[in-house]
């Protein structure tokens, strides 16, 4: 038993040094714990003293006196710990004045007086061991039992009303269990001295559950680490997703651009250009989604409200979705009520975005069957129309437990089944926040495996104004011969694009690359019908350039902001800065037509169509030095390759890029189709995409190699191009790695190595 006393003493001294060496939070928790800690250390010393006196056969009176001190300590410690339990729920000084604490104090005084008054004796066993007994001992442990009962009742009551502090009751529960067990053992075998070790253990355990800076700091560090790890994982997932989503359309843009350079006919070049436009629109949608969510989270996205024709907006949405159906075997059903007021007042831009997001999502996740689009309205009062718009599909559906995750950023549900679905995971997150900004409501109903229905209700004000109808004017219908346009942009490639777009209008185009150059041209006496002015330029921004131009009272040339800052609400901001209008990059032909028609063509008609005789277009001096790849393409006539990619545009790009090798090219649009084709056909190389439906590229690769006779080299052809992606595929066993957009040199090296190794 001596070793037990020594260990008790060591532990309690250590915890005291730790606790009192630092400044503690000034609360009731720590005040009571300080008392418990001091009491426990005194009790351990008294217990050790008692043991030493008995061992050395000290006078009986001395031993009995020390024993009574120990009994008083046991009652005192238990009473104070009881007070601690009572105070957990209300950690403030008011608890001191409560009736239960007053009763606790009264009973404590009575118990101590009785213990002092009652006799205590000791008995000596045949083996020479001695233990205390008598009425004082029995009463003391009876008092402890009373406090344990009060402690238990207090804990139960507190836990029913106070769940946030439930962690603090763990040492209390330990004391109730261990105290009860030690009490029973000591009753059966009085020579066991278990009280002090139990109280020391509980005292030390309590340290880790009070409001102390050490544990708090440790918890904060742990929480910060967990948050950092979670953030890093989210960042990695986001970068991986962005790499794939951005590189996929980029692969088409870069690939088809290369094909245009080597096109054998105008028709082939036009076909490639059309594919580039499609891929560019996809890329622009991704970028806009990222900008939108950033704007929303920073609180800078504002609703821009105006009168609009709801039927025109719905018609535009329907036409866009029909184009996105592609060759999917889907029945697109549209039902738009005829009683919706034609002209409404609200943010039609974001209404349109909400509908496009819902419908695009339905098309993405529905492989066959139908997509239904219904729009109706309820007139709330004379001034407000409640638009009720629903999108129902026969697609994959959503598991009940996943519905709450739908509107979480970067969230992709059922990733094992939806790897083919393109997108950033931002669409529905943006939609939800836009609907909330408009004080609308979204209802989702879905049956997994059968389909989903999204319904959104948004109130819009009914407008009594009549909208001016403006027909789209094609560039073929605008003849600006002799009219002069100045394009100001610090990026030479942007200038080149603008000049190319303006060529069909037969106008004279001049360019300059800075705000200073623009001012010099105007002050030199040059006359222009319109200025297209970039804002983000070095040394002098477009807005500052405009301010300096308008400082001259004679300056009356319309100036249009030509900028890539295309976040919702930027048009209004530029108009406030003094610009006459706004044209976003990439330049939309319809918007360009509108601008030219409004500010150049109409002015020309007003002026009596007075055109300058000079019609020669002044082109910007842009150096063209495209890098020609020095690749000596090997002739692999007779070699057969398989391209595996769920994206048909990617397959088309890869096929065109590989034409110089004279391969016999076959394609598969899923991992399963690849497995079936390999069974019947022998290929010299297989190019394998990673993100495919139902079975990704790595899983397909693994199943191919389950056949011991399979020896065909497999090269990863993927948009997963973040750091470490190449190692991932090479470690998985792939014979090579080519990232999208396809680098011809990387592709050539991979092909030659694969065929050489064979």
Top-tier CATH class of the largest domain: Mainly Alpha
Q: Unreliable runs, pLDDT <50, ≥5 residues? A: 415-424, 470-475, 608-629
Q: What coarse outline follows from CA principal-axis ratios? A: elongated
Mean pLDDT: 79
Structural class: alpha/beta
Number of strands: 19
CATH homology-level superfamily of the largest domain: Rhodopsin 7-helix transmembrane proteins
Helix content: 40-55%
End-to-end gap: 78 Å
What does the largest sheet look like? 7 strands, mixed
CATH architecture assignment of the largest domain:
Up-down Bundle
Radius of gyration: 40 Å
Number of helices: 22
| Total tally of structural domains | 5
CATH topology of the largest domain: Rhopdopsin 7-helix transmembrane proteins
Strand content: 5-15%
Keywords:
Heat Shock Protein 90, Rhopdopsin 7-helix transmembrane proteins, 5 domains, elongated, 14% strand, 5-stranded parallel sheet, Helix Hairpins, 758 residues, 22 helices, alpha/beta, 19 strands, 7-stranded mixed sheet
